[in-house]
Every structure is written in C-alpha cells, then in structure tokens.
Amino acid sequence: MTENLSLVPVTEWAPLVPELMTRDLGRSLDVYTRVFGFTLHDTRPGFAYLSLGRAQWMLEQAQPDGAWLTGPLEVPFGRGINFQIVHPELDALHARLVAEGYPLFQPRRTETYLEGEVANKQRQLLIQDPDGYLLRFTD
Description:
The protein has helices at 25-35, 90-100, and strands spanning 19-22, 39-44, 47-52, 55-61, 82-86, 104-115, 118-128, 134-138. The protein is an alpha/beta fold.
C-alpha cells in the first residue's frame, strides 16, 4: 500500500501524538491516506507516522504478544474515546467517503457547542476507521 506514497519530512513534532493499534496496517494506511487525506511521513515494518494539517498520528500493527497492550484488543478498538481532527477539506473528504461507500457514523452536519456564554458553530462528520476508532472530522 505504501509503494505509491512519497514520504514528507515532519517539520515540527506535535506534543501529543496518538498511536493506534490496527488489525491490518496496510488497510488502515490505505484508508487514512487515500480516503481520509492524511500524509505519510515515515513507515517501517509494522508502523506508520502520518499527519493531517497540524494533527499527527501513528498507526501500529497489533501483535498478540505486544509489550504495550494493556488488555485484549476487541473490535471496535478505542471504545470510550473519539478523536476530533480539523480537516482542511471537509467537503472533499465527505465526497470521497460517499464515493467509496464508506459508512458514516453520523452524517455531516453543523453543531453548536457552548463555550461559556458563546455559541460556537462547527461543521463535522463522524466515522469509524477500519478498526472502529471514532473520528470526528471538523472544519
């Protein structure tokens, strides 16, 4: 899956970078780059480092005897967490998801979130990645 992708150097490391275990790194890497629009920065066997805008992301092939596993991995992975990611082209992402027939967890819509007395509007859509991690893309 990575043979058609060119690596782009990271110019500044983010202070927080989630590293998600995957069942099939090749499949996840394809979806994250081709469909979700992430850029691949580094890859080695069982690992990939990606970004989308200023968001940075790591994917790792899960191993049954992995030293960092805190418990059994059961699908969907990441229960109880969702990742909000600002997407520079939310409408283009939505079009790719629809064209791929990729299931939406929640459709694209505008939500209003209160910050004190201030109402902030945010366009968003929610999907689950191939392993079930919940991703909330916003613009």
